[in-house]
From TrEMBL:
This is Sirohydrochlorin cobaltochelatase. The keyword Signal applies. Residues 1-21 form the signal peptide. Keywords: Signal. It holds the Pfam family CbiK.
Length: 306
């Protein structure tokens, strides 16, 4: 039953096929060719969390890939405009960044988003990048944080500092953004993996999706929890973390009788979380995306599945 749940959730999420791709040498360059990694985030107007998360990830990519040009782009045009108005800093959107890379002679580009799951934002990024395929010899988009089952387990391990000292009547609650996209099922799957890994007092909720805070509260009461450690399940601790989570949701939990401590810490501050993104990029650089249409054609011609 558990295996079936995982399969159904991953099918709903439209999991990337990189995980089953064959080895690739696409980023082995010939004379005159240049390679780059484009990191893409939604963005945040909160400078401190931006530096601790998005900035930290960019620094790690630059250290790990010295032969690549590493640049960052944001997808939220509203956030980009506000940063420019308030801080005088200009961030490119993905299209602008790709155009600049082409102009500067880059021929091989990997796009690594910092999205949590395979949903609207990651799909929109893929669509935007797809229109620039003809401008580069190689242009790939790697996968979000929660893509394979192993990713979920690695995230649970990475978050151990948040739950390792919990008492029986204490719980950790992670609040994600939420979406109407089927990829929203990632939150429930992650809670399921937490419990499967023996972390029974971990709960997932969302600001705008399912599980809602009421669902989390019901679970906390059923587990006879008295104290809650409240964290954003978002790359940055921005507007949602500072207002919806640390104020509104905290107050609602307290009204329901829980003692609550809110932590303004984005996932991007966690080195082990950033490591997962680096690993996804490395896999994208060294593997082909699996072509299921080509496989189906081979099967139709008599080839047997391995």
């Amino acid at each position: 039953m558990k295996k079936m749940l995982v399969v159904l959730v991953m099918l709903a999420m439209g999991i990337s096929l990189f995980a089953n791709g064959a080895k690739s040498n696409d980023f082995d360059l010939k004379k005159g060719e240049k390679k780059a990694i484009l990191l893409v985030s939604f963005g945040t107007t909160f400078p401190e969390t931006r530096e601790k998360t998005i900035g930290a990830l960019e620094k790690e990519f630059k250290a790990d890939y010295p032969d690549f040009k590493v640049v960052t782009a944001f997808t939220s045009r509203i956030i980009m405009r506000r940063i420019k108005e308030n801080e005088g800093i200009t961030y490119d959107n993905p299209s602008e960044a790709l155009k600049k890379l082409k102009k500067d002679g880059y021929t091989h580009v990997l796009v690594q988003g910092t999205h949590i799951m395979n949903a609207i934002e990651s799909e929109t990024l893929k669509t935007e990048v797809e229109s620039y395929k003809g401008d580069f010899k190689v242009l790939k988009v790697s996968t979000p944080l929660l893509t394979s089952v192993e990713d979920y387990k690695e995230v649970v391990k990475a978050l151990k500092p948040t739950y390792k000292n919990l008492k029986k009547d204490e719980a950790v609650v992670f609040i994600g953004h939420g979406t109407h996209h089927p990829g929203n099922s990632a939150y429930s799957m992650l809670e399921h993996v937490f419990h499967g890994e023996g972390v029974k007092n971990a709960f997932l909720g969302t600001v705008e999706g399912y599980p809602a805070l009421d669902d989390v509260i019901a679970g906390l009461k059923k587990a006879k929890i008295k104290k809650v450690e409240l964290y954003p399940f978002m790359i940055v601790a921005g507007d949602h973390a500072n207002n919806d989570i640390a104020v509104d949701m905290k107050e609602e939990l307290e009204k329901n009788g829980f003692t609550v401590k809110a932590h303004l810490v984005g996932l991007g501050e966690n080195k082990e979380i950033r490591k997962i993104f680096v690993e996804h990029a490395e896999f994208g650089l060294t593997h082909e995306e699996e072509n299921m249409l080509a496989k189906k054609k081979e099967y139709a011609n008599g080839k047997q599945p391995l």
